[in-house]
Write a structure and sequence with these properties.
Shape: globular
Order of helices and strands: EHEHEHEHEHHEHHHE
Helix content: 40-55%
Bound molecules: acetoacetyl-coenzyme A
Largest sheet: 7 strands, parallel
Number of strands: 7
């Protein structure tokens, strides 16, 4: 039977590539988007349908525990229990620390870190009880090495791996693996929003001299979601063109 996968931030740049990849590998996929993205989600669904993929989209704010509980109840009722969860929802509010306001810090921590708790908590016990689960947390190279202007984002992304390793220990004997994927600079709206000069200088520092493609991140996620990765847990897979090696 097809496994059910939930992907938060499912209609974003990296999220879309993961959706397509998991749907093509036979998962029943549900894409989550933020409630403010409903209109975009409709055209996104049409674009997927044109590729032959019917992907349901459910809006929920990952920063709200109650909204995440409602979303997962709805998925349970419509499709069944979630077997694979990819925590991909993320935002940036880049600013040097001297200009960083509490509201920016809180927004980034609420979505990028608390969001991981809010969604994972809804599916965790079911995975333990059924003896199978895959949790994949999408972090960032900047959670590993820091980045000028991203104290909030780097703090949230670095915390993910601590969460991954702890949960990996709780799930290991129950068939539930928990891993992190840390993309580098990937061609998405998020990196395109950066000042061009800054972006070019970052690219010149990447050993492969190019940004990554969303599909290159999706390939790592698909592997971690598969049966073949059963013995890998608590890991952090870097997909960064050599920008940071750890
Ligand atoms: N190292 C040292 N100094 C730097 C610097 C760096 N890497 N980058 C900028 N500066 C300096 C500038 O030269 C400038 O110096 P002066 O004040 O002497 O002129 C100063 O820092 C900039 O200060 P500002 O007050 O103008 O900065 P700001 O608060 O407006 O923020 C910024 C600037 C938006 C953070 C900008 O530096 C920036 O966009 N940096 C890149 C951040 C980044 O990499 N974001 C990744 C987005 S994509 C993503 O997040 C996905 C992922 O996971 C990789």
């Amino acid at each position: 039977m097809a496994r059910i996968a939930l992907l938060t931030g499912g209609i974003g740049g990296i999220g879309t590539a993961i959706c397509v990849r998991l749907a093509r590998s036979g998962h029943t996929l549900v894409a989550n988007c933020h409630p403010s993205e409903i209109a975009t989600a409709e055209s996104w669904q049409q674009a997927r349908a044109a590729e032959g993929l019917m992907i349901p989209v459910i809006a929920a704010d990952v920063a709200s525990f109650a909204d995440c509980a409602r979303m997962v109840r709805e998925i349970d009722e419509r499709f069944g229990p979630v077997d694979v969860l990819v925590n991909c929802a993320g935002i940036t509010r880049d600013k040097t620390f001297k200009k960083m306001e509490p509201a920016q810090w809180e927004a980034v921590i609420d979505v990028n870190l608390n969001g991981v708790f809010n969604v994972t908590r809804q599916v965790w016990e079911g995975m333990l009880e059924r003896g199978f689960g895959r949790i994949i947390n999408i972090s960032s190279v900047n959670g590993q090495r820091g980045q000028f202007g991203q104290a909030d984002y780097s703090a949230a992304k670095a915390s993910m791996q601590g969460f991954t390793m702890s949960l990996a220990q709780e799930g290991a004997a129950k068939g539930v693996t928990v891993n992190t994927v840390s993309p580098g600079y990937i061609e998405t709206a998020m990196t395109l929003a950066m000042d061009e000069g800054i972006r070019n200088s970052i690219i010149s520092g990447i050993p492969m001299r190019r940004m990554g493609r969303p599909e290159e991140v999706a390939a790592a996620v698909a592997f971690l979601a598969s049966d073949e990765s059963a013995y890998i847990t608590g890991a952090n897979i870097q997909v960064n063109g050599g920008l940071f090696m750890h």
